[in-house]
Specification:
Layout (H helix, E strand, L loop, with lengths): L1 H17 L6 H12 L1 E9 L3 E8 L2 E8 L5 H12 L11 H19 L9 E6 L6 E3 L1
Helix pairs in contact: 3-4
Length: 139
């Protein structure tokens, strides 16, 4: 009896693997980015005073990066892409401060080296929600 159940489950699993719609390929890419790297950051100018980027990394949801400068459209895309490429494989995913530090370094590096826009640590605020109670930490 147990072997019959296992056999049926195995056949079901094999059948499910074969039933992938090609229209979901883009969705798989998005899921891969969200789970293995950063979490689909979106950076936008907030009026004419700052850039705001939102996304998720590992267990940090609602991650927000505020930079007291503005960027053009191409620069916003570059910054979003670089934040999406923050890897968590080399750091402890429970070390929230390390993740926030890494995000801040990416933002600072883009502004200073890629865009040649002077910024300091004080110009870049990185915050995230760390638990289901909504506790927010900032760097």
């Amino acid at each position: 009896m147990f072997r019959s159940i296992m056999f049926v489950c195995a056949l079901g699993a094999i059948g499910a693997v074969g039933c992938v719609d090609t229209g979901d390929a883009a969705d798989e890419t998005a899921v891969g980015q969200a789970t293995s790297h950063g979490g689909l950051f979106d950076c936008q100018n907030n009026g004419s005073i700052s850039v705001v980027c939102t996304g998720d990394i590992a267990l940090l949801t609602g991650l927000t990066v505020n930079i007291d400068k503005t960027l053009d459209g191409n620069q916003l895309n570059v910054l979003s892409g670089d934040l999406n490429n923050v890897k968590i494989t080399d750091i402890n995913i429970l070390d929230y401060n390390k993740i926030l530090d890494d995000v801040q370094v990416v933002a600072l590096n883009d502004f200073l080296t890629k865009f040649s826009i002077p910024v300091t640590n004080n110009d870049v605020d990185v915050c995230a929600v760390v638990n289901i109670l909504g506790l927010q930490i900032c760097k």
